[in-house]
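Please describe what follows:
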Amino acid sequence: MATPTTTPGTAGSGRRIGLREKNKMRTRTAIRDAAMRLFAEQGYNQTTVEQIAREAEVSHTTFFRYFSSKEQVVLSDDLEDARTQALAAIPPGLGHFGLLRRLVTDLFKIGTADAWASNPERMRLIQSEPALRTAFQIESDRAISQAPDFFAEYTGTDPDDLCLRVFIAAAGGVMFHFARAADDVLDDDLLSTLLDAIDLLEQGLPLQPKS
């Protein structure tokens, strides 16, 4: 497994970053890179927080100031602010499929622009370790559970409306299906596939008959 290198100095939102925040990002990066080296050398389950801290040359206490657990070293991606800004920048007046396309495109680009979030070694580790895979799925399900409120507020729909709930469930299932099948690579081909899938959902899932 190649040793990934994350890049400090960007927060995924294009804003200017102060020296203190840059130093914090460097420390987070150092911990992540140390963890990934150890995971590659001796395995995820065999690696302890103490070993990661030692490899990153930080104290045990410092480790827990930045990450709540070994699991979160891998799962967290520091893009919450960028995602929040992207949601706030969506113009009014889109239909529910237009809103879905905008969300998928913007959030996909935020992820692919970040060296850590789009790191294929990170994604392979998440998919290969049962504990990480389960935790990642729980976080994904939590994100989907928040979608009805966002769509409801944007479209003026009751959050408990059955049509809205079915729409969110169908869209979420399709998006995660193709994302999981993408061989851990986030690229323009995957984004095109996701947008094509949204088109098919909007068209009522037509099938092409055999000629």
